[in-house]
Design a protein that fits this description.
heterodimer; A: alpha+beta; two-stranded antiparallel ribbon; 9% strand; globular; B: eight-stranded mixed β-sheet; 34% helix; 15% strand
């Protein structure tokens, strides 16, 4: 029973401040969760804290490897709304 | 004149920090701000982010020590980090509090005009309280002459008001985009509050309540509060008039309405959904409407959370951690030099103000004429002078001249980003884009200008003028306006006064 962090993490520190078990390690390029410490906040809070503050969709996975904040759930931007990759690459500035 | 009585701001000790002259700046002509009590003007006289006059002379820096955030805004995407990007929420190098103190001392030694250190992110300073306050503590000790300030979304502000006061912070900016939860819910998809992620109207209502409470608490303690608002057409543009009124009623002393920056490539919700930003004219119109009630700031450059230097310039790249390490700095000597330079700048500001006041008195005010106002763009690299080559300007200061007054109304950037709504077609040259940016202006004042841009500007109906190089901006703008009037270029309106 432990959550994990993916490479989408931006190392923004938000989860670090709210984890009740100090289970998060500031590793670079992205943070990691020490599985042996993580309780998924059971007993402390109703929701896992890292997943409740993380601003990046897909950055925190549950024990089954499923994103707790799937695409679109935080930003409202679903994959179908994004322009094709060539658009971003050709933008000025 | 629409002077209001003293704004309802209370100072804890009744005294003012700092000395010297008083600023009439903050984004509009001095007489328009005459309602600011002297002790407030003194407090902002050397603060480039709070005083329009000061920003011509003094520099600031932000240190990026606060990466975490506790809310999501639909105009923000924290994943983005590009050196060419100039907008809030973007940084290149995150600093520890120790590194931030070191960087601040290095910058303040190299740029003696630096008067202010702010923490503005890239997340929210109060979502990173340990890092934020450790930075403030280090700086209070090592550079007590530098003013400290911060900019926050306000969610945790009430909780930290006491701590802020302990660190002698007398300027705080709160970003308030709405005072209505329904409108707020269209700007903030969620907040993290009491160990839960809260969404929708409930989230917006909590955020708004905390912001308003924080504002009241700061004002009660005598802290100067500026309110920042992002103008989002169709969402909060009309509503911002109510926000401005409420902020004023609660004792904020300045309101900074900024245009939404939203481009698809930024990957923000507003960028991806095609939400447009306001045009320059829409922004100015809203600022003018709010100005009846509130002092408005119009010189904001919406800078990065790691910006360094004068507003409008970013010398951050000169002060990377690697470069700072290699610097050999005598901190005590630097502080002395800073003090001398800044005293000189305050004197220059004083003289400038006195000169303008004398000219206002001496100027003949025509009666019975109704000449139209003229917008003029100015290329300036600081000191309140026309001292920049047209081709080197990355931004233009926009002034509105009338027979009675020269009024600063805003800044238009030429290259840093293109504001989507004003258009920015593919294949346009930089010069073409610059000319579009100057739309509505009839004159552009600069230190020098090349032959080609001169011709192109003229063809576009904008008169280039290099005759006032190195002159003070307002005086030159007033002189050019009088020349235009004398040449009969402005008498397009029927003389209402005579008819009446």
């Amino acid at each position: 029973m432990a959550l994990s962090i993916t490479a989408l993490c931006t190392a923004c520190d938000a989860c670090l401040h709210v984890c009740p078990q100090q289970a998060i390690i500031e590793r670079r390029p992205y943070y990691v969760i020490r599985a042996e410490r993580c309780t998924e906040c059971t007993g402390d809070y109703a929701d896992p804290q890292c997943a409740s503050i993380c601003p990046v969709e897909g950055a925190i996975l549950d024990a089954q490897g499923v994103a707790l904040n799937p695409p679109g759930s935080l930003t409202g931007i679903t994959p179908d709304m994004l322009p094709p990759p060539s658009f971003a690459a050709s933008s000025p500035v | 004149m629409k002077h209001k009585p003293i704004i309802p701001i209370a100072l804890a000790d009744g005294t003012a920090s700092g000395g010297g002259c008083s600023s009439g700046g903050c984004g509009s002509a001095p007489e328009k701000l005459a309602h600011l009590p002297d002790h407030i003007r003194r407090k902002v006289q050397d603060h480039p982010c709070y005083s329009e006059e000061a920003h011509h002379y003094f520099a600031r820096m932000h240190v990026a020590v606060a990466p975490a955030c506790n809310i999501q805004c639909n105009y923000c995407n924290r994943k983005f980090d590009c050196a060419n990007e100039s907008r809030p929420g973007v940084v290149s190098e995150l600093l520890s509090p120790e590194q931030a103190v070191k960087k601040t001392l290095a910058v303040a030694a190299a740029i003696p005009q630096m008067s202010v250190l702010g923490i503005a992110g890239p997340g929210d300073p109060l979502a990173n309280p340990a890092r934020t306050f450790a930075t403030f503590a280090g700086l209070s000790e090592k550079a007590p002459d530098i003013k400290l300030c911060l900019s926050t979304n306000g969610l945790r502000l009430p909780e930290f008001v006491d701590e802020l006061c302990k660190h002698n912070i007398d300027h705080v900016t709160i970003t308030i985009n709405a005072i209505d939860a329904g409108i707020g819910a269209r700007i903030y998809p969620w907040i993290y509050w009491k160990n839960r992620r809260i969404r929708g109207r409930e989230a917006a209502a909590i955020l708004i309540e905390q912001q308003q409470k924080g504002l009241e608490m700061l004002v009660a303690r005598g802290v100067l509060v500026k309110v920042n608002s992002v103008m989002i057409p169709g969402i909060n543009d009309e509503h911002l008039k109510a926000v401005s009124k409420a902020a004023k009623a609660k004792g904020a002393f300045l309101h900074n309405v900024m245009p939404l920056i939203a481009e698809p490539e930024h990957g923000t919700y507003f960028g991806v959904t095609g939400q447009r930003g306001p045009t320059s004219a829409e922004l100015t119109a809203l600022q003018d409407e709010c100005a009846g009630e509130m002092a408005m700031m119009r010189h904001c450059r919406q800078c990065r959370a790691d910006a360094v230097g004068m507003l409008g310039e970013d010398r951050g790249a000169e002060f990377s951690l690697a470069k700072i390490e290699a610097m050999d700095i005598d901190y005590a000597a630097a502080m002395q030099r800073r003090s001398a330079v800044q005293q000189g700048l305050l004197r220059a500001l004083d003289e400038r103000r006195a000169r303008r006041a004398a000219q206002d008195q001496a100027a003949e005010k025509p009666v019975g004429t109704a000449l139209r106002p003229v917008l003029m763009a100015v290329a300036s690299a600081g000191q309140g002078l026309i001292n920049q080559h047209f081709g080197h300007a990355r931004e233009f200061l926009i002034y509105e001249a009338t027979m009675e007054d020269v009024r600063f109304i805003g800044v238009r950037k030429t290259e840093l980003y293109c504001t989507g709504s004003d258009g920015c077609g593919d294949g346009e040259s930089v010069l073409e884009r610059t000319i579009r940016t100057l739309e509505g202006c009839e004159v552009v004042l600069c230190a020098k200008i090349g032959f080609e841009p001169w011709q192109r500007l003229e063809a576009a109906g904008i008169q280039p003028n290099g005759e006032h190089a190195l002159e003070p901006i307002e005086e030159a703008v007033a002189a050019v306006y009088r020349e235009m009037a004398a040449a009969g270029k402005l008498a397009t309106k029927v003389s209402l006064a005579r008819a009446a």
